[in-house]
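From the shared-data thread, chain only:
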Amino acid sequence: MDQFAAAMTFAQIVGLLADYAASRGSRDALDVQDLARWAATHGHNEVMAAIERNQATAVGVRAALAEGRDELLAKLVGLDEKLSAIAAGMGPLEQVARALRPDSMLSDQAQAILCEFERVQAGSALEHISNDTGAIELLFLDAKTDAPLEIRDRRFYHDDMEQLVRLELLRWEANAGHRHFRITRLGAKIGLEILRKA
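Structure, as tokens:
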């Protein structure tokens, strides 16, 4: 299956699962047989056939349904939030995501942080907050340059970093009283995409 066909099939399966789960009550059990009956009555026979043709896909769908309606819907909302954030720097797709999910879009500052990780080819950064002025910098530990990134919008810096961590674009850990951030592969890809479109 080529990449375009795989992307289309994935989107159709996610849409099918979302529609099916949303049509059920929170106490209803979700299972593949009920999904197949529901799909047949709602014109989704082709998507069900794609699920049934691929054993790994069928196993994944069964596992998703077994988690229950509320858990599945929560994961689908999380996936939607990630997809909206990932659309950053993708021109018209970013515009679509911004129109549909403005709350999920990365701020300019969050995008700049990802771009800087990618620009200097850093894998991690240490957060430094000045005790005197409150100025915030990210000190890249393994970068091509030792120039820090000065955070200009301190008011929303923590909100931006929390979103980047929640979307799994960055990971963090405590390090001698400071936060140590590591970029993920997905975060690096988004940073690179934004840089290319700049």
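The CA atoms of residues 1 and 7 lie 10 Å apart.
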